[in-house]
Write a structure and sequence with these properties.
- The protein is an alpha/beta fold.
- The chain has a single domain, classed as Rossmann fold (3-Layer(aba) Sandwich).
- The strands form 2 sheets. The protein has a 5-stranded parallel beta sheet with strand order 2-3-1-4-8, with helices on both faces. It has a 3-stranded antiparallel beta sheet with strand order 6-5-7.
- The longest helix is centred in the last third of the chain and has 17 residues.
- The chain is globular and about 45 Å long.
- The termini are close together.
- The structure holds BIS(adenosine)-5'-pentaphosphate.
């Protein structure tokens, strides 16, 4: 399957993408994680991306699209992928459509995670991620690690993302509403959007997502 995951910051995209990718046996491609990996390796792309990310703004389309395209063309993504955080505006959605068309393939679904803004703020304030792998995500109270400050999966140090400060989160939410939400209508016009609530226990949301995707698949 080829799926796009969309939702505001803190909706649980990364949390659900890890689980869905495992269940559906497709790679989880997160542009946020790819940028963070570049930042920790101190590449030129990482240095460029950091200034935009720390301010809560989108990294320019040109470098983002090239990075996402390069990752989607890796051998593990030939039969499907789950995109998390890409596309993030209509220009990126159009670039993705053009790329898929050139390969004669299509998206199967756009999974839209709905969550109220006050919950987003609580989730982001308590989020802690692993220095070794930013897909290892915890929450101080909702999904606390067994030992405070230590990743359950690999023993790495847990830290708070630089862009998780209150001010930056406000900017990220505004950017989501003005630039990313329009892609939901863009994909609705293609009949691809499946919306589920991202409130409740993590396992329950994964179950909800798999059921919604199965229904979508049956209509193809
Ligand atoms: P990115 O890393 O994609 O961040 P985001 O979209 O803002 O989303 P988050 O990672 O904040 O949240 P999430 O929905 O993954 O939630 P999570 O699962 O962690 O992007 C960061 C930046 O990179 C952007 O601002 C931009 O600058 C740049 N960027 C990335 N892609 C780009 C693109 N395409 N174009 C341009 N720029 C781009 O969950 C949050 C917390 O809640 C966790 O602590 C988790 O444990 C907890 N939680 C999850 N589910 C539940 C639940 N059901 N109940 C209780 N707690 C829960």
């Amino acid at each position: 399957m080829r799926i796009v995951l969309v939702g505001p910051p803190g909706a649980g995209k990364g949390t659900q993408a890890t689980r869905l990718a495992e269940k559906l046996r497709i790679p989880h491609i997160s542009t946020g994680d790819l940028f963070r990996a570049n930042i920790s390796r101190q590449t030129d792309l990482g240095k460029l991306a950091k200034s935009y990310m720390d301010a809560g703004n989108l990294v320019p389309d040109e470098v983002t699209i090239a990075m996402a395209k390069d990752r989607m063309e890796q051998p593990d993504a030939v039969d499907g992928f789950l995109l998390d955080g890409f596309p993030r505006n209509v220009q990126q959605a159009e670039a993705l459509d053009a790329l898929l068309k050139s390969e004669d393939i299509k998206l199967d679904a756009v999974l839209d995670l709905e969550v109220p803004e006050e919950e987003v703020v609580k989730r982001i304030a308590g989020r802690r991620i692993c220095r070794n792998d930013s897909s290892h995500v915890f929450h101080e109270s909702y999904s606390a690690p067994k030992q405070a400050g230590v990743c359950d999966t690999c023993g790495g140090e847990l830290y708070q993302r630089d862009d998780d400060s209150e001010d930056t989160v406000r900017t990220r939410l505004e950017v989501y509403h003005t630039q990313t939400e329009p892609i939901i209508d863009y994909y609705k016009a293609q009949g691809l959007v499946v919306t589920i609530s991202s409130l409740g226990p993590v396992d329950e949301i994964t179950r909800r997502a798999l059921e919604a995707l199965k229904r979508e698949d049956a209509t193809q």
